[in-house]
Amino acid sequence: MRRPPRIAVVVAALVALGVPLAALAASHERSASPSFERDVAPIMQAKCEGCHRLGGIAPFPFATRHDVSSWAPAIGVAVGSRAMPPWPPGERSPRYVGEETRRLSASERATILAWVRSGAHVDGPPLKPLPTPPVPVRAGESVVRVGMPATYHPTSRNGATDDYRCFLLDPKLTQNVFVTSARIEPGASRVVHHVILFKETPAQVAEAKRLDAASAGLGWPCFGGTGIGLEASGGGVEAALNDANWISAWAPGWGGGRLPDGNGVPLAAGSQIVMQVHYNLLNGRTPDRSQAVLTVAPTSAGLTPAQTMLLPAPVELACAKSEHGPLCNREAALQNLVSKYGANAGVAPAGLLLLCGKDAANPRPSVVTTCDRRIATPTKILVAAGHMHLLGASIRLTLNPGTPRARVLLDIPHWSFHWQNAYTLAKAVETKSGDVVRVTCHYDVGKRMHLGRAVARTPRYVLWGEGTTDEMCLGILQVTRG
Ligand code: HEC
User: Fold this and answer.
1) pLDDT bracket for residue 59 (50, 70, 90)
2) What is the four-CA torsion angle of 212, 215, 221, 226, rounded to 10 degrees?
3) Does the CB atom of residue 86 touch ligand 1 within 6 A?
4) Where exactly are the structural domains of the chain?
5) How confident is residue 454, by pLDDT bands cut at 50, 70 and 90?
6) Can you give the pLDDT at residue 32?
7) Is 112 helix (H, G, I), strand (E, B) or coil?
8) Does 85 sit behind a cis peptide bond, omega within 30 degrees of 0 on the bond before it?
9) Does the C-beta of 334 come closer than 6 Å to ligand 1?
10) Is pLDDT of 376 > 50?
């Protein structure tokens, strides 16, 4: 399925409103006519080229004079409407590390728009691709490269334009380490859209191997999650959710997630890594063999262990008023989940209602869902991320909502499954025991009609589940405790 065509919609809306491009550009007027070579090219190299380069994930490269000037009108719209460069967090979000290297400043935006308005002349030589920055290695750290064991040929059924695949990677660790940063070196950067890394204990590795063996070819299909259960620790569900198995998330052009200094994700000897890759098949089906490049510190470095806190909320989405069908019945939809994914999938919806203090015996459908978690021990929040599937409209993570100490940790006002990332807070947030973290998700069931032919549009009561037509509402926080 193609990502909702946000830019196309913006263009259509502007045209419908009779807003001429030039007027849009003029509203951001600055200097007369900037030079491409001197003023515009450096901005594009820094802020666009990570994705818009030869063989990159974006639909066209900004590599030649011709590329850049022929796309000028679209660049004017994409930059003027702030659709590009993509930056999902909204104005209510706090500041995040690296934000200024991903977003355009007002003056950069004005420069690009003034250049478009003045005719988009390209002086000087074609853009030369910037070299990939080296992996930042701190004193005492070493680099661990762990690659897919063979080449994978992205594929899809029913004409889908995305392939979500999990691969088990063995870093062959003989000692416990801390992971301090992780980035992906895509084998085929045209198709690798985003990647999430999970750490798996030996017991989970066995489950991963079963999933791998059950699926033809390298790896196994995984849309919303890895398909591997969380480690059932002695402390029950909440303990498992408070210390889950995330390492990091990566997307092209967005660098490598480095935890703030002094912190690291503990990775025990014998653990392995599941790399979940989203392939964008609109750019072809180039065979891929990607690598994860981790920096690790020995335990003697005495880093503070970063843990991952998962904040799921129940999903109970009724069919729209105009929709009808057998799966609009909750019980039938639940049975459908069980038949697709087994008995555990049938228990999750009630489990989540209970976890979040809702009435599991009388689930009430709603397009808004929330869940609160009380912080048990003083916790420092370093990184925030959100996860929903295709019907997601917005997601927000808030500390102490409804109190004078309320603070937004992450606010994504227009959710797109295709732009998932983790955001490192520019200033870590300290919490006290008794504080509350809330995840809130809004859904738009109407999105079902725009999912493209590869996703079943059969009306259904949507519950929490792994599949493309199931949903999740999941807040993810990387934290240190104590
Ligand atoms: C994080 C990756 C990324 C970055 C950074 C990025 N783009 Fe894009 N761009 C894309 C992708 C992917 C598309 C395809 C449409 C989509 O998925 O939104 C796209 C589409 C476009 C389009 C086509 C819009 C249309 O009409 O369909 C334009 C123009 C554009 N980008 C301009 C820019 C400019 C200018 C910058 C820098 C200021 C930039 N982009 C930065 C990934 C990126």
Assistant:
1) confident
2) -30
3) yes
4) 6-117, 142-304, 309-481
5) low
6) 64
7) helix
8) yes
9) no
10) yes
Q: Buried (b) or exposed (e) across 109-130, using 16+ Cβ within 10 A?
A: bbbbbbbbbeebebeeeebeee
User: Percent of the chain scored above 90 by pLDDT?
Assistant: 56
Q: How many whole angstroms from 42 Cα to the centroid of ligand 1? A: 16
The per-residue pLDDT for 22 is: 42
**Calpha distance 352→314 (Å, rounded):** 5
Which position has the token pair 């420069």? 111
The CATH number of 142-304 is 2.60.120
Residue owning the nearest CA to atom 20 of ligand 1: 58
Q: How far is CA 60 from CA 4, 64, 195, in A?
A: 18, 11, 21
CA angle 414, 417, 420 (to 5 degrees): 90
Looking at this protein, which amino acid is placed at residue 369? Answer: T
Predicted confidence (pLDDT) at residue 15 exceeds the cutoff of 70: no
Structure-token pair, residue 128 = 């030369």
Is the link from the previous residue into 349 a cis peptide, with omega within 30 of 0?
no
Count the residues in the chain.
482
Terminus-to-terminus CA distance in the chain, angstroms? 44
Percent of the chain predicted with pLDDT > 70: 87
Q: Does domain 309-481 have CATH number 2.60.40?
A: no
pLDDT value of position 339 = 86
Please give the Cα distance from 253 to 275 (Å, whole number).
18
How far is 377 from 375, CA to CA, in rounded Å?
6
Binned at pLDDT 50, 70 and 90, residue 453 comes out as low
- pTM recorded for the entire structure: 0.86
Say which amino acid occupies 392. G
Q: How far apart are CA 475 and CA 454, in angstroms?
A: 27
The answer for residues whose C-beta is within 8 angstroms of residue 99's C-beta and 6 or more apart is 87, 426
CA distance 111 to 38: 11
What share of residues in the chain are helix, strand, coil (percent, to 5)? 25, 30, 45
48 lines ligand 1 (CB under 6 A): yes
Are 257 and 250 spatial neighbours (Cβ–Cβ below 8 Å)?
A: yes
Q: Which two tokens stand for residue 18?
A: 């009779």
- The answer, yes or no, to whether any atom of ligand 1 lies below 6 A from the CB of 425, is no
Ligand 1 atom nearest the C-alpha of 6 is 18
User: Token match 């969380």: residue?
Assistant: 230
Is the shortest distance between the CB of 47 and ligand 1 below 6 Å?
A: yes
CA distances from 111 to 20, 38, 39, 320 (A): 19, 11, 7, 45
Report the pLDDT averaged over residues 182-198: 88
Question: Apex CA 274: angle with CA 395 and CA 183, to 5°?
Answer: 75
Does position 29 have pLDDT exceeding 60, yes or no? Answer: no
- Name the one residue in this structure whose structure tokens are 């006002």: 413
Per-residue buried b or exposed e for 255-278, using 16+ beta carbons within 10 Å of the residue's own CB: bbbbbbeebbbbbeeebbbbbbbb
